[in-house]
Amino acid sequence: QLQENQDEIENMMNAIFKGVFVHRYRDAIAEIRAICIEEIGIWMKMYSDAFLNDSYLKYVGWTMHDKQGEVRLKCLTALQGLYYNKELNSKLELFTSRFKDRIVSMTLDKEYDVAVQAIKLLTLVLQSSEEVLTAEDCENVYHLVYSAHRPVAVAAGEFLYKKLFSRRDTEEDGILKRRGRQSPNANLVKTLVFFFLESELHEHAAYLVDSMWDCATDLLKDWECMNSLLLEEPLNGEEPLTDRQESALIEIMLCTIRQAAECHPPVGRGTGKRVGTK
């Protein structure tokens, strides 16, 4: 009897879905399209056994191409709710491989709010499975740490931090207590220097620091570690920093001190709503 009741309810749900949602998710009014996508996201979270499959996910994927930013935004926030729950990751694999390129392209969306949520969604995808995003996908997000729009840059900074800086070797209990050149931050500071030099935007260190300030404050304020990298002799088997790398580290260090003292974003970085032309 329980099974019969469940089948009956699922048949009703299916009839409502086909009779209402399938027609209205393409409604002429953007607000109705947005409500449809928001609700299907809730259904997939609440009753993933029935709704979290590619028959339903495809509607969210298709709607990511909607002309209205508010509708694209609802797609991304609905997907964030799903990717946040790691237990659902296996059910999202096919969707991810099929629509990943679209999500990556949305990091350059003309609506800043959409771009920010696209980056946040990719950060969740990264946490669910690092293999999904290619090096090229990641590069597309990395360069956004230099964006003039601060929310986009901060979201990209968090993505960069999760990908390149959040792996700490904590095998030994004592390693976290080491300071200066031997601290776990030493390799992370070097990684930051290498990234800054590879990005070849050498006049924009302040932008990079500001982008990562919220998620990597402890690293960026570890001036003792930075000093020791500049002043102390390399440890056995350790590659010394080149003159160019030392100059970059000094520049980054100055920017972190200025950021800590002044507590505001660098000149030219704002929170405007529209993206300018190239």
Automatic annotation (TrEMBL):
> Which InterPro entries does this UniProt record tie to the protein?
ARM-type_fold, Cohesin_Scc3/SA, HEAT_SCC3-SA, SCD
Q: Quote the SUPFAM superfamilies the UniProt record gives.
A: ARM repeat
Which GO terms of the cellular component aspect does the record hold? Answer: chromatin; cohesin complex; nucleus
One Gene Ontology term of the molecular function aspect: chromatin binding
List, for all copies, the residue spans of the domain called SCD: 21-106
According to its UniProt record, which protein family does this protein belong to? Belongs to the SCC3 family.
Spell out the protein name for this chain: STAG2 protein
- The species is Alaudala cheleensis (Asian short-toed lark)
The organism's taxonomic lineage, starting at the top: Eukaryota, Metazoa, Chordata, Craniata, Vertebrata
